[in-house]
Each structure stands twice: as structure tokens, then as C-alpha cells.
Amino acid sequence: MTLSPHAAPVLTINQLRVQFRGSPVTVLDNISLSVQAGETLALVGESGCGKSITSLALMGLLPASATILEGEMRFAGEDLRHISPRRYADLRGNQLAMIFQEPMTSLNPAFTLGDQLSEAVMRHRQVSRREAMAAALEILHKVQIPAAEMRLKAYPHQLSGGMRQRIMIAMALINRPQLLIADEPTTALDVTIQAQILALLNRLKAETGTAVLMITHDLGVVAEVAQRVAVMYAGQVVETGDVAAIFNDPQHPYTIGLMASIPGNGARHGDLATIPGSVPLPEQMPAGCRFATRCPFAEMRCHQARPPLQDIGVAHQVACFRAPLEHHLSLEERA
Ligand SMILES: Nc1ncnc2c1ncn2[C@@H]1O[C@H](COP(=O)(O)OP(=O)(O)OP(=O)(O)O)[C@@H](O)[C@H]1O
Hints:
Elements (H helix, E strand, L loop, with lengths): L10 E10 L5 E10 L4 E5 L6 H9 L6 E10 L2 E2 L5 H7 L4 E4 L13 H12 L4 H14 L5 H4 L9 H13 L5 E5 L7 H18 L2 E6 L2 H7 L2 E6 L2 E7 H6 L4 H8 L39 H5 L5 E4 L2 E3 L12 H4 L1
Helix pairs in contact: 3-4, 4-6, 6-7
The structure holds adenosine-5'-triphosphate (ATP).
Adenosine-5'-triphosphate binds next to helix 1.
């Protein structure tokens, strides 16, 4: 499926701000994102940067202690902030689907795979049990579960981790969603199985045109699946662009640090070895750029004002006073 730059996005988030009760700062601070049909947008960043809160906000599943202060979330023409809880429940598992890192949290150990998959169909479509079971069998074939017919009668604990993740994908895709949110879907799997699952997601996305929001801290995963990337730091999007721009022309010091931490790109101690320090605690959040406390280039103005997310190339935006950097600079020269 070819992407049209003019197609209306399936999902648009505009200037979303979320705050937890008792916290002095916003956990999501003016987040704007969009995903088109057939496209995978990777949302990347270190633990605690707000990736999961973004997906929970989208799914209408924020904890009661979190409030959306302002902003817009539009999905397939609907304003997600103003639909009824009933409509939200109908969208979830139907047009708006999600898969998680740990499948056992979403699969019911007491029911067979056939029962759970067919139930997911019958909850949203007017079909007989027999038709729902046929849909369950079809989707098991699509996610390449061997001996699929027999597996309909299996229970989740009878499957390997990789197989369970395939079942989660089957469950998420069985009603042909317009958007699939995948939150670290392969983190718990070993490398070979991880590659198989990512290849499967890529194939199914190409077949169905489903838009995918892939949440990950793993840049290897990003390279495998995404067309576009949004880099988050401490609740803010600091850089967004297509995969080539982010990998070949990273502009934000945080993105440059993430890139340098990929093994083979000069990483010494693995994850984020090149970015000393950690995400500031809410009560110590800087007033200006939230990355300023860890940034080797921070100037006075970075501590005083938040740099706006600005265009620096075709569909490439960065929130840094230092941008744009010269295209020809190597990763070492940027850092
Ligand atoms: N129930 C809660 N109450 C208060 N703060 C919370 C709550 N849940 C999450 N947070 C805070 O929100 C921030 C963002 O968390 P989030 O889970 O979205 O991060 P993440 O990027 O998905 O990290 P990870 O990769 O570890 O899941 C964190 O700083 C976390 O401490």
C-alpha cells in the first residue's frame, strides 16, 4: 500500500496536556502526533518519558488520578475527548486496538483461544458463534499459528511466549482496526522471535492498511517497522521526522544521544551510555527545555524558555535552539 501525503490521518493528537493529581508538572506537555493509514509511527524515548501515558490517554484508559488539561485527540473523524464511555468501549478492541508487552495480562487463562477470539468478534459484530469461530480460525492462519484448528481448543498457558504474542496480535486485528497501538510488543521476547513478530506486524499492516503506533525504547525495532518517528523526552516531543531523517540527520541532542547509544554507532556501555544522568523528577523539572539539565550544549536561554517544535526540513521538526545543524556533520561531530 502506498502512502499519500494528502490522506487524512487516522489519528491526530494536538497539543495534548496531561497532569497527575499532586504532581507539579504535566506528564504530557503539548504532545502533537499524527498517524496515517498504512503507516507506522514509532514513539521512542527512555523509560518514564510518557510513552505509555500517551497510549492510555488515546485508549481512554488513563488512571483516575490523571487529568487531560487540554488538547485534542481525533480518531477516524471522532473527537475522542467528547465521546461517551460506551462509544469508547465499542471502539476499543474494534477500530482502536492495542497490544501489550506481556500477553498474559490480556489473555484470560480460563478460556480457550477459540472462545476468546470468537468472543472478541461477537462483542462488536452481529455474527453467529459459528461465523465468529471461522473468523478466529482465519486470523490464526494469518498470524501463522501452526495447527491452527487444534489451537482453537488450547489454553493460553499451553503456548510459548512468541505464540502468545501472535495470539495477542490476532486478537487485536480480528476486527480489522484502523489503528493498532503496540506498546513494547516484543520486549519480552528473545531476538529471533522478536524479528519474526516484527516481520509479521509489517506484513499484516501492509495487507490491511492498519495504521500502527509503535511504542518502543528500542531503536532496532524502529528501524525494522517504522516510517516515521517521534522522539519523546520527559513528556514532550523533542524531534519528529521520517526514519531516514531521524537516523541520518538527528538534530536534537537527545536524539543524537539515542543514536550514539546504538551498538556499532560508538556505544560503549549499551543503552544511553552517551547521555549521562536521568530524566528529572517532577519536582525538579526545568522550567525551560526539559532536557537542559542533561544537555552538553545547554545555554542560559535553554533553562529559561522552552524551545518550540519547529520545521527544519520536509516533515522534520525539532525543539532545540541549536537546530538546524549542518546535514554533513557526523554523529561524533554533532555530539
Ligand atoms: N499513576 C501514576 N501516578 C503518578 N505518576 C505516574 C503514574 N503513572 C505514571 N506516572 C509517571 O508518568 C511518567 C510517564 O510514565 P510512562 O509509563 O508513560 O513512561 P514510559 O515512557 O511509557 O516508560 P516505560 O517505558 O517504563 O513504560 C513517569 O514519570 C511516571 O512516573
